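2 proteins. here.
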Amino acid sequence: MRWDRLISFNRVIKSSGSNALLRWYSTVGAKGPSIPGIRDIIAVASGKGGVGKSTTAVNISVALAKACQLQVGLLDADIYGPSIPTMMNLHQKPEVGEDMKMIPVENHGVRCMSIGFLVEKDAPIIWRGPMVMSALEKLTRGVSWGNLDVLVVDMPPGTGDAQISISQRLQLSGALIVSTPQDIALIDARRGANMFRKVEVPILGLVENMSSFKCPHCGEESHIFGRGGARQTAEDMDMQFLGEIPLELDIRSSSDEGYPIVVSSPQSASAKAYINVAEKVTYRLKELAEERLMGPQISL
């Protein structure tokens, strides 16, 4: 390990089936990648915090790696509130290679990078915008990602500088919007989707998280945050509705323990819901790549 280089870096930032998917990924490329060796970069985003965006990003990343058998990376772009180290049970500092780039830390078949690997667990990140932009640059292009089919970016909440910079500088292949069913969350989800459209990033679809709660004792299903709001929003905004993720204790507890539900209970309804979303995302990326290969359609 080159800890002198890592210390130097810290100083700088302070100033349908799996086989079919594999065959397609080996033959069809997306638009030119902004990071060499990475075929597609997708953002998992929400207009507000607290809707389960990071949990969704983690489980979809693991599902892409395990169920879809792709080479996957996961970037924690939430500088002020990094959660990937806890959710992926990764707490070691990354090594630094001879090329002065950090080597991602891997678990559950996913290569991960987060500012949480470089600071103390409870240390607040008290940085202004330029320092955050510098950190994000190091966490993307200052990392030896290797060859990846997909890099999943866990975006910070909101529609500010960090979100716009990531969208434009990383040449995102698409964005996945996460929301809970209630109106107040969907209002911000619409804002997030419209931000991506303004910077010409395709919307992969909308996921409704915390869709319903099933009582573990009587089995009765309750729609605590409302019902059908995300599906209706997706229809109104001409977005694909990718699925519903239930509100379950196991999802929360497994995330806190660093073993995403896709790993800890792969046959559960929740895990199958995440896998279904991951497969839809993959096929949506395929469609977008084919559209780019065809080029613009000219009508006479």
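next one coming up
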Amino acid sequence: MHFLPKSQMTLSVYLINMDGATDRLAAMTEKLQAASLEYERVPGVNGRAITFPIKEFSELSYKLLHGRRTTPAEVGCYLSHVDCARRLLAGHADLGLILEDDVSFEPDFLNSVDCAAMHPTDWDILRLTTVNRGRKYPFKPLEDGRSLALALTREKGAGAYVINREAARWIVNRLIPMRLAYDIAFDLEYLDGLKAAFVDPQPASQYSEHETQIQSNMQQYKLPRWRYLTVLPYRAYLEVSRFFSRGFQLLRNRFF
């Protein structure tokens, strides 16, 4: 557990790593040591070893809302992130830093997290990476040219992010059973009254020399296009609701 001196908060670090992925673990251990981060390894859930159906996964909702057949790798990834949230709740830390094993860090990474933690009312989920390039709207300066910022459109990827205990309870209690890919599901915090913010520019990167363990061979799990008659209206609803919810949050943060 880390003590963050500026915010006076405690931070646990969870690294999701599949059994057998020793090259990834070695690379991440080196990077984490360089970033002065001590971590707990969380064995990734092997979705291909799951015998479906399971209560933690709604196959019908996944088809209707996500437009895919049961995708074992995505299920395993999802349950691995939920496991990290459970571990935070079982411990005593104020915050949990959740990492996938393909992340790189900027030199001021830990200081950026500490600076953001000085503003606990501005976020429940602090996002530190994304695989999208959507505009981020800053609302509170931090240090080293970084700011807390909001994204008004969907941002995919869950390579590195921090959650507080309220967000951990939300993940454990509200995001099960699984209905969407994890990076889509945890981007919907606003539907339950939680707040998410980015550190921008991001102090970490999700681009890696390692091949993805989830997105390969995804084409085989996609349903016929006509099945998107349920997916597209749902996605449109999410985009509109996200824009207005976070837009109002941005206005409050900037002007009130």
